[in-house]
Design goal:
This protein has about 90 residues and is of the alpha+beta class. It is built from 2 helices and 3 strands, in the order αβαββ. Strands 1-3-2 form a 3-stranded antiparallel β-sheet, covered by helices on one side.
Length: about 90
Amino acid sequence: MAIDFKKILTISAKEWSEISGKNLRDYDIEGVHCEGIMMSIGEKFSKRVPNEAEIVVGYQYAAATEGASGGFSASVYATGTALIPRKDRG
């Protein structure tokens, strides 16, 4: 199951913690990364987020293009940090 797009944020973990009032020590973190094309990068990224994640912070994406004699190609890279509630502190 993919995480809801509303839970993929560009703000930092610290900013999210201050806004939400939650302590970052109560979370494990996991990097989420993917590569794709512009039209599908958001959906592809959201499906790579662990099911247990409460939120993703620090989301960024960048496009890289390459032209060649035979054509043109473009790739998009997305990255973020999933915050997963720790089971031992829950």
